[in-house]
Design brief:
- By secondary structure, the chain is of the alpha+beta class.
- The chain is built from 15 helices and 22 strands.
- Strand 4 (113-118) and strand 5 (125-127) form a beta hairpin.
- Helix 3 packs across helix 11 (360-371).
- The two termini are 39 Å apart.
- It binds adenosine-5'-triphosphate.
- Adenosine-5'-triphosphate (ATP) binds next to strand 10, strand 14, strand 15 and helix 11.
- The site of adenosine-5'-triphosphate has 18 residues, from strand 10, strand 14, strand 15 and helix 11.
């Protein structure tokens, strides 16, 4: 394993490690994530930003051309499902820099903090709940401190690996917001880079209600950057310091709240499985334990929630290659924010808010993780590759067609002018409808394997016959099945949206 990949994988980031080796997870999971991270760099999906400078900045990533396409397709799917196709939801786009008063009102200046412990040996900081493990999610600060003291001899530092790392010192709280100055540095207004996109929505909601004459129930959706000075960024795209969120704030009456919470949890689950192709066996719910609940315990079927949340919300966890961990959350924000921004129904009663909040980069990671099949040995079904190597091991990214960076790859079998002309003309026609790669390098077998690895659902091969009768061979990524069609038939299928099933 290269040192840079090892660094990306090693972290004390939250994951229910006690569950990571659960019985339904028998694959060699670390190898899977390791090979995925390597592929992402090699093929231009994602890599550490500024890697050339002392291994880069922890928690910051560059998306390359393929990763940018994949991320955009996931964001588009979210926007379509949560905003575009719903009459009751509208889109907004609010700034990263908000007036500092917003963050005081929101409670973030006081509460948006993690409990942190420092290693007595190497001085590295770790999140106290991560040190405790799976049960840490459900403990408040006092219970965390007690747990760390009770188990001090066995608790190891994630950075240097030494035991009895934290002694008896109670955890301290560290705010996660990046602060900054607006205007001339010395005299300027001190504010923060937003740690969640939601607050911009609350600050603008009254005005939107006025312009749209919106009555509850209605929602405001937004996709945008968020910044958190995480104590321990890691697990690749799982915990970053700059990331994107897809958030919906759904405003409803108190009477409607239970039904809306139920609806949005189910809706979000259906989005993950049906639109992003995430297998339901790798998803589970963890209800939020909140300030209005009984005293926290180390019952890890619950997860502690943010300071604004009330009972009834849930995290949706995904079984990542490194274990079960939060993919997204559906929070019951109650009237916490509407009280502060005076957002009311016509009768003056405060509106309640349900918030499905999905981290876009975590979705990218979950989709990649769910679709990555390294070293898969798959014989051809109903056809063989022209190279005759259809049963050799391949790395496949089984992305749903709508998420794939390229929908088609046009592959002329020889690098000859007449074939290249036909291939370029077909690429141009396909590009009117879907992003299409063209590859003329190396052997056809290697080109197929490259497209399999980046998730291209269909390869279109041009050969001698194509020059005579305008037919081409379509090859399915997952089964390697092949069929022969004329280019016009192919285009008809593309227009009908049926080019990916044969
Ligand atoms: P965690 O417990 O993992 O720190 P959180 O409960 O603080 O997450 P929320 O504040 O509920 O997360 O944020 C909503 C969503 O934003 C999360 O479910 C996740 O998908 C995403 N998210 C939060 N923090 C990060 C991060 N540092 N990097 C990438 N995505 C993140």
């Amino acid at each position: 394993m290269s040192r840079s990949i090892a660094r990306l994988l090693s972290t004390s980031a939250s994951c229910s490690s006690s569950n990571s080796s659960s019985s339904n997870n028998s694959k060699p999971v670390v190898n899977t994530l390791e090979s995925l991270v390597a592929m992402c760099k090699r093929r231009g999906f994602v890599h550490v930003s500024g890697e050339q400078f002392n291994n880069g900045l922890a928690g910051a990533f560059d998306y390359g051309p393929l990763g940018t396409q994949l991320k955009r397709h996931i964001a588009d799917a979210w926007w379509r499902a949560f905003v575009e196709r719903r009459g009751d939801v509208h889109g907004v786009d609010t700034p990263v820099l908000l007036h500092p008063r917003v963050w005081q009102l929101a409670g973030h200046v006081e509460h948006f903090a993690d409990a942190v412990v420092e290693c007595r040996h190497c001085g590295a900081s770790s999140r106290a709940d991560h040190v405790v493990g799976a049960a840490g999610d459900a403990l408040d600060d006092a219970a965390l401190a007690a747990h760390i003291v009770a188990h001090r001899a066995s608790l190891a530092c994630a950075h240097c690996g030494r035991k009895d790392a934290f002694g008896d010192k109670p955890p301290t709280r560290r705010n996660l917001m990046f602060d900054t100055h607006v205007g001339a540095a010395a005299a300027g207004l001190r504010t923060y880079l937003r740690p969640e996109t939601a607050q911009g929505v609350f600050a603008t909601a009254k005005h939107v209600m006025y312009t749209l004459r919106a009555l509850p129930p209605f929602g405001l959706g937004q996709i945008g950057r968020a910044f958190r000075n995480e104590i321990a960024p890691g697990h690749f795209l799982f915990r970053m310091r700059e990331f994107e969120q897809c958030e919906l704030e759904y405003f409803c009456t108190q009477a409607d709240l239970p039904a809306q919470l139920h609806y949005w949890i189910e809706f979000t689950e259906a989005f993950l499985t049906e639109q992003l192709g995430i297998p339901s066996a790798r998803l589970r719910r963890r209800p939020h334990r909140t300030a209005d609940d009984v005293q926290p315990t180390d019952d890890d079927s619950f997860v502690n929630s943010a300071h604004y949340a009330r009972r009834g919300g849930a995290d949706l966890e995904f079984r990542f290659a490194f274990g079960w961990s939060e993919l997204c959350g559906i929070a019951n924000r109650g009237t916490f924010d509407t009280e502060r921004h005076n957002i009311t129904a016509d009768d003056g009663s405060l509106l309640h808010v349900v918030e499905p909040s999905l981290g876009l980069d975590r979705l990218v990671l979950a989709v990649l993780d769910a679709c990555w099949r390294p070293r898969l040995s798959l014989p051809a079904v109903g056809g063989v590759d022209p190279s005759g190597d259809a049963s050799i091991q391949r790395d496949i990214l089984t992305l749903p067609a709508q998420l794939a960076p390229y929908k088609f790859a046009v592959l002329p079998i020889r690098k000859r002018d007449d074939m290249l002309d036909v291939a370029r003309a077909l690429q141009r026609r396909l590009m009117q409808h879907a992003r299409t790669d063209m590859d003329v390098t190396t052997s056809i077998g290697k080109r197929y394997r490259r497209q399999d690895e980046i998730g291209t659902p269909v390869c279109v091969t041009i050969d001698e016959q194509s020059l005579l009768d305008s037919t081409v061979t379509l090859r399915d990524r997952d089964t390697t099945k092949q069929i022969r069609l004329t280019t016009d038939q192919l285009l008809d299928r593309v227009k009908l949206g049926s080019a990916f099933t044969f």
